[in-house]
Design goal:
By secondary structure, the chain is an alpha/beta fold.
């Protein structure tokens, strides 16, 4: 997905601040001021309505392959903190590096707070990620809402020819298996205080999920996304978690079959985001691409049994709808905005799944009880 034309700055270089351009699939060209690294990136253009938490959002592996536009008018206010590890897990980032291809903001602010070591632009430079500011993000958001997420090219400091832009726009986000890039290659074990193992199938897991699972008390064994059922069961798991991750779930037919096989062992399973979709596909549901997805830390969901509302964190471009539910699945949560199925309980199995992110980094803690429900199932 990364363009071979990339001219990102080297580690530690200063921020670039010349002209930058955003080229959209529909022919729109927007000129602004660049920041971050000088270079060219292409990807699927989407927007987030998050008002804070940009260090966590930008390091979320579910954003891999995407150009991220922030609807909030000021981004960068409090800088970027130093990484903090606890038990080998990052407590203030969702992965080791920035995962988006580039970012688009109305106005960059070069602020720092008491715990920051970089400005946002400095951090992007160190990571080789370009940004563009000074464009009408309100107009851009409306365009995405009307036309849907679309291929785009962000060029920072380099004016591209029409032929180069055309070639870079010929990308099909839905055909690329980003999960194989986002997942770990070898098992990683995080030591808990209780005997027993929770297996985490890593499709691009956020560290906030790892942190919440370790709080349950058992060891957390993080396995590659394509781990076989035999490998998973060799750890004698007390529970299994299918994580979030980037890209199109319909490309993961082998992993869907693995889920179906593991479900026969009657071990409790929790699916989060992409894991929610894989579980549904395993039991016959259809997962479809949304027009512009849910990308925010302030999205409402309603628990159907109690009619209670919760504010939750989302990052997904694919969804399940009530007219195509999996066999044995009962709607647990629903979106009041567009009727997306946000949670499923499998009444005849020890399986629960949520489309949102209950660990809420960044975001509210409304839905942390999902992990408690999973703990009681173990």
């Amino acid at each position: 997905m990364r363009s071979p034309l990339s001219k990102a700055l080297t580690h530690g270089a200063s921020s670039f601040s010349g002209a930058a351009y955003l080229y959209l699939e529909d022919g729109t060209v927007l000129k602004g001021k660049g920041f971050g690294a000088k270079g060219i990136r292409n990807g699927e253009l989407i927007f987030t309505t998050s008002m804070n938490g940009y260090p966590e959002s930008l390091t979320d592996p579910s954003y891999m392959g995407q150009l991220l536009e922030f609807t909030h008018p000021l981004v960068g206010n409090y800088g970027v903190p130093e990484k903090i590890y606890k038990n080998g897990i990052l407590s203030n980032f969702e992965s080791e590096h920035i995962m988006v291809e580039g970012i688009i903001v109305a106005e960059l602010t070069e602020g720092k707070s008491w715990n920051s070591i970089f400005t946002l632009s400095e951090w992007l430079s160190r990571e080789g990620i370009p940004g563009i500011q000074g464009i009408d993000t309100r107009m851009l958001t409306k365009k995405i809402r009307d036309s849907g997420a679309m291929p785009a090219v962000l060029s920072n400091g380099i004016r591209l020819t029409n032929s180069t832009v055309k070639r870079l726009l010929e990308i099909d986000y839905s055909s690329i298996n980003f999960v194989e890039r986002a997942s770990v290659k070898n098992p990683i074990i995080y030591k808990g205080k209780l005997p027993g193992n929770i297996i985490l199938i890593d499709f691009g897991v956020k560290h906030g999920i790892l942190e919440e699972l370790l709080k349950i008390g058992y060891n957390v064994v993080r396995l590659p996304y394509n781990a076989s059922p035999d490998e998973v069961m060799s750890y004698n798991p007390v529970g299994i978690v299918y994580s979030n991750g980037p890209g199109n779930p319909n490309l993961l037919s082998n992993e869907v079959n693995n889920f179906l096989s593991l479900s026969e062992y009657k071990v409790p399973i929790l699916g989060i985001c992409l894991g929610h979709q894989i579980a549904a596909m395993a039991f016959g549901a259809k997962v479809v691409k949304m027009k512009f997805g849910h990308h925010a830390i302030n999205k409402a969901v309603v628990e159907t049994a109690t009619n209670k509302g919760f504010i939750t964190t989302h990052n997904h471009g694919y969804a399940i709808y009530p007219n195509n539910m999996p066999e044995g699945g009962k709607i647990w949560f629903i979106s009041p905005d567009d009727n997306v199925v946000e949670g499923i309980e499998y009444t005849n199995r020890k399986i629960i799944t949520v489309q949102f992110h209950p660990e809420a980094r960044p975001g509210t803690n409304d839905a942390n009880f999902v992990f408690e429900k999973f703990r009681r199932m173990l």
